Amino acid sequence: CTDQELLFASEIKAILEAGYLKPEFNAAILPEFLATRFVAGEETFFRGVRKLLPGRTLSWSLAEGARERRYWRLPVEPDDSRTSFKEQASEVRARLEAAVRNHLMSDVPLGLFLSGGMDSSGLAALMAPMLKEPIRTFAVGFSEPGANELAYARLAARAVGAEHREVVVSPEEFFHALPHLLWHEDEPIAFPSSVPLYFVSRLARDHVKVVLTGEGADELFLGYNRYRVTAWNERLGGVYWRVLPDTLQGKVGGLLRFLPGLARQYAQRTFLALPPDPRALFCENFAVFPQTLQQDLLVDRRLLIHRDPYAEAWRYYRETRGGTLERMQHADLQTYLVELLMKQDQMSMAASIESRVPYLDHKFVEHVAAIPGRFKIQGWRTKAVLRAALRDLVPREILTRRKMGFPVPVGRWLRGPFWPVVREFVLGPRALRREFFDPFLLRRIAEEHRAGVTEHADRLWLLVNLEIWHRIFLDGEDIASIMRAGRTRCESSG
User: Fold this and answer.
1) Helices 171-185 and 336-350, interaxial angle, to 10°?
2) Do 420 and 355 have their domain in common?
3) Cα separation, 165 vs 162, whole angstroms
4) What pLDDT digit, counting tens, does each position of 116-141 carry?
5) Which of 57, 62, 240, 281 has the most crowded Cβ, counting Cβ within 10 A?
6) Strand order in the sheet with 163-168
7) Mapping DSSP to helix (H, G, I), strand (E, B) and coil, where does residue 95 land?
8) pLDDT by residue (tens digit) across 392-442?
9) Is residue 140 domain-resident?
10) Are residues 38 and 100 in the same domain?
11) The domain containing residue 122 runs over which residues?
């Protein structure tokens, strides 16, 4: 953007292709990327390229330059006018039905991504009576034990008489596709689940032109484990920090290091080891690379001085009224969810199919975002009001089972046959020559993961993606050569 020109596009690669901008890495975002997996504000991985955030318009004129206007925002205050849980559930059901009906308007064939969880299963049950023909549903899974929810997807499909199809992704297909998909996403892929999303999109495109998905329900209805963990840490910690003297708290914290491995990891994420600070409980506690670890990892520690990894999330957290649950929801809907939606859009469009999100119908969002958190988390049960709204629609086995997220066994693969991916893209000479990270700490993290001492799958995933991104967009390496090199190394080590 100059006094005479404005360059904009829906994808960063289109801006680069125009030739006005030399691709350079915006290293300032490293602390945020390492902590949260993504960049929440206007900045991108490319120096000089910025994002227009959701709910905003940008206009430009010679007289005034660029002007940004926000045309929509989330409710900032919980609505306590409706106090009955039953009434809340009934209203959610009615409004979700309306949202689904609106998203079914189409002149082309529609389908549904079915994960086997409550959110997409609920959509299937609501869609079925609205369509003249059986729903076309699509699911994706892996062959590894514990990383496959296809049985639940089949159960949900049978319950509504769907025309159901599945694809099973092998680890070879997964890693072979990674550079290609990273090119589509323009930035490092934050979540391994992006890759299977592409494969199920590719399956669906042969049968439909549009798919509905369950994205957004976890953020709206507080479905993630970190919400209830943070709430309970704050609740129990409030008593602990108030009653126990600081000296005794220090002794308890010191004793945690003597616990066996897994117990120690869990205990260190509780109020027994954490300070009474919402940023520590909600942000730092769930960071991939916490700031304490980044201080040892980053070669240029000045990056941490100039960059607060949680600034955007914390700004939204403080923007809303209400308690901890409402604040976490408000922050995630405007940071974490934005990244998830980018993932969904880019992976589905990479397979030439349109995806729609009924849970994020703006009228539905405005209503549900204002429902107080106590209706969403009750005790240790998440998404309580949505479960009640869907109780008579979703099979009981799905409604009551433990949430798994989307299980991608990346950690197992990187520990086993795809260890060469780590060796090349994390520990390899090209990666180390970039001098972003301390090589000794990188080796320790990698070797601890390989030996099964500590699970570092999320950390290694980010580091692998960052290096592949550099090779594609900064080094100009051909995507096919990256895939061939990775495949050759894995085969030679097998």
Assistant:
1) 110
2) no
3) 9
4) 999 999 999 999 999 999 999 999 99
5) 281
6) 163-168, 136-141, 110-113, 210-212, 354-356
7) helix
8) 999 999 998 887 767 899 999 999 999 999 999 999 999 999 999 999 999
9) yes
10) no
11) 85-221+335-400
